[in-house]
From TrEMBL:
Family: Belongs to the NusB family.
Any one GO MF annotation of this record: RNA binding
Keyword Transcription part of the UniProt annotation: yes
InterPro entries: NusB-like_sf, NusB_fam, NusB_RsmB_TIM44
Domain NusB/RsmB/TIM44 span(s) in chain numbering: 234-325
Organism: Myroides guanonis
Classification via SUPFAM superfamilies: NusB-like (SSF48013)
Name listed for the protein in its UniProt record: NusB antitermination factor
Entry GO CC: cytosol
Length: 341
C-alpha cells in the first residue's frame, strides 16, 4: 500500500512538472505581426533588387525567419559566455606566482549563480547551438569581455557579490537585471549585429523581450530552460509562406484595388514601402478567409507607424477602410465564421 502511495505521489509530481514544461513550450519566437514584418522586408528586398524571381525572394524570407533563432541563441548565450569568461580569469589568477589572497580564494558567487549554470547545462540550448553552428562568440570574444567589464564595474554586480543572501530567487533577479540593464542595451553588441546581419535590428526587441520573459518564468523547484519554437504552430508557418506567395502572384491585381481610391495622391509618388503594405493588407482581406478584416487593417496600420512616414498610417487607414466598406457592400470579401468582417 505504501509503495502504491509512493508511486502515486511520484506520478502526480511528474504530471505537475510536465504541466509546467508545457507552459514553457507554449512560447514561440515570432508572433503574427513579426511574421508580417518579415514578409514585408522580403518583398521590399525583392523590389529593390528589381527581380521577379519568386523563389529567391522566398528563400530570403525563410532564411530571415530562421536567422531569428540564431540571434536568439547569441543574445541568450552572452549570459553563459560572460560567466565562463570570469571563471577563466579566476583560474588564471589563482595560478599566478604572486597571487593575492583574494585571487587565491575568489568570490565565486557570480560563477556559481544557479540560473547561469542552469542555462549552461541546458541540453535544449547546447543542441541548438550545435545544430545552428553558433560559434560567433568564440571568434569575437572581445565583445564578451566588453560585457563582463561593464558588468563588473556596475553597482548591480557589486551589490550582488557583497550580498550574503544565497537563493535561486536572488540569482534569477540578478540575471534578469544583467540581461535587461547590461546586455540588451549595449551599443557595441548592437553595432556587431548591425554589421553582421542587418535584418537582426528589427528582430532584437522581439528576441530580447522573449528572453526576459523566459528568465522571469524560471522556478527553483523544477527549473528547465527550453529553446522555443520559431513558429507557434504550422498555421503560422503556412501563413508566412502563403502571405508572401499570394502577395507576389497577385501584385498587379492588388494594386488595382487602391489605385482608383487615391484621388489626392499620385500613385507614382506613394512611398514604396506603403505600396507593399497596402498590397499585403489587401491580400489578407481578399485571400485569407479566416482572418478578420479589422485585424488585418489594425496590424498593417501598426506596421506602417513603425516602418513608414508619419502620415502613412492615416493614408493607409483611409484606403483600407474605403476598400473594406465597398467590398462588404457588394459581398466581394468572403470570410469564414461570424464576426470576421
Amino acid at each position: 500500500m505504501q509503495d502504491i502511495f509512493f508511486y502515486l505521489c511520484k506520478l502526480l509530481n511528474y504530471l505537475a512538472i510536465v504541466k509546467s514544461f508545457k507552459k514553457v513550450l507554449i512560447s514561440s519566437m515570432l508572433n503574427r505581426r513579426h511574421i508580417r514584418i518579415k514578409v514585408m522586408q522580403s518583398l521590399y528586398a525583392m523590389q529593390q533588387s528589381n527581380t521577379d524571381q519568386i523563389q529567391s525572394g522566398e528563400k530570403f524570407l525563410i532564411n530571415s525567419i530562421e536567422n531569428v533563432e540564431d540571434l536568439y541563441l547569441l543574445m541568450l548565450t552572452t549570459l553563459t559566455e560572460i560567466r565562463n569568461k570570469e571563471e577563466e580569469y579566476q583560474e588564471v589568477s589563482q595560478k599566478k606566482h604572486l597571487a593575492t589572497a583574494e585571487e587565491r580564494n575568489p568570490n565565486r558567487k557570480f560563477i556559481d549563480n544557479q540560473v547561469l549554470n542552469l542555462l549552461a547545462q541546458s541540453t535544449s540550448i547546447s543542441n541548438k547551438l550545435e545544430e545552428r553552428s553558433i560559434t560567433q562568440w568564440r571568434v569575437h570574444d572581445h565583445y564578451i569581455q566588453i560585457l563582463l567589464d561593464e558588468l563588473k564595474s556596475s553597482e548591480l554586480y557589486k551589490n550582488y557579490m557583497s550580498s550574503k543572501l544565497q537563493s535561486f530567487e536572488e540569482d534569477r533577479k540578478f540575471v534578469v537585471s544583467v540581461f535587461t540593464d547590461i546586455i540588451a542595451p549595449n551599443e557595441k553588441i548592437y553595432e556587431f549585429f548591425e554589421d553582421y546581419k542587418l535584418t537582426w535590428l528589427d528582430d532584437l526587441p522581439v528576441v530580447n523581450t522573449l528572453i526576459q520573459k523566459q528568465l522571469k518564468q524560471l522556478k527553483d523547484d523544477y527549473s528547465i530552460f527550453l529553446v522555443p519554437r520559431i513558429f507557434k504552430d504550422l498555421d503560422d508557418k503556412d501563413f508566412a509562406i502563403n502571405l508572401y506567395r499570394k502577395t507576389i502572384l497577385n501584385y498587379d491585381e492588388l494594386a488595382k484595388e487602391y489605385e482608383d481610391k487615391t484621388p489626392n495622391w499620385d500613385v507614382d509618388r506613394i512611398a514604396e514601402i506603403d505600396t507593399i503594405i497596402l498590397r499585403m493588407a489587401i491580400c489578407e482581406m481578399f485571400k485569407f478567409s479566416s482572418i478578420p478584416v479589422k485585424v488585418s487593417i489594425n496590424e498593417y496600420l501598426e506596421i506602417a507607424k513603425e516602418y513608414s512616414t508619419p502620415k502613412s498610417s492615416i493614408f493607409i487607414n483611409g484606403i483600407l477602410d474605403n476598400i473594406s466598406k465597398l467590398c462588404q457592400d457588394n459581398d466581394k470579401i468572403k470570410k469564414i465564421g461570424k464576426g470576421l468582417l
